[in-house]
Amino acid sequence: MDYDPNCGGGGGDECPDPNNPNCPCTVGPCARQKIEKEKEALDFGIYPNPADAFITLQLPQPATKDETVTMTDQMGRTVNEYILRSGEQVLKIPTEQAAGGLYLLQIGTGEAIIRKKVMITHQK
Description:
The relative contact order is 0.18. The strands form two sheets. Strands 4-3-6-7 form a four-stranded antiparallel sheet. The protein has a three-stranded antiparallel sheet with strand order 1-2-5, with no helix packed on it. The radius of gyration is 17 Å and the shape is elongated. The longest helix is centred in the first third of the chain and has 15 residues, at about 30-40. The protein has about 120 residues and is mostly beta strands. It folds into two domains: about 5-40, no CATH class; about 45-120, Sandwich (Immunoglobulin-like). It has one helix at about 30-40; strands spanning about 45, 55-60, 65-70, 80-85, 90-95, 100-110, 110-120.
């Protein structure tokens, strides 16, 4: 089954309500559309990049739930985790204690994960 009639539609290629977070669709076109909507909501911008003292992460719209932002180094080790609270759109991440280098910021869970690279270069 590609859809669940409880999400408000009758099947086909269109998700009846991809904005409904309670839609139980888990397979097929409906589920793919839900994942794409979640990714769009989490597709964040990073500035400045390269960064020195801080990084600003900005979502295109306020978060609909608390989101964990994970910062990993080039070896895949978690450097730190931050929480972007529901209703917030901007998270300021301090980078003064991080060594200079390339890092990966990740937000989201499951299949709706967005990752972006950020370079930290400390000016002396």
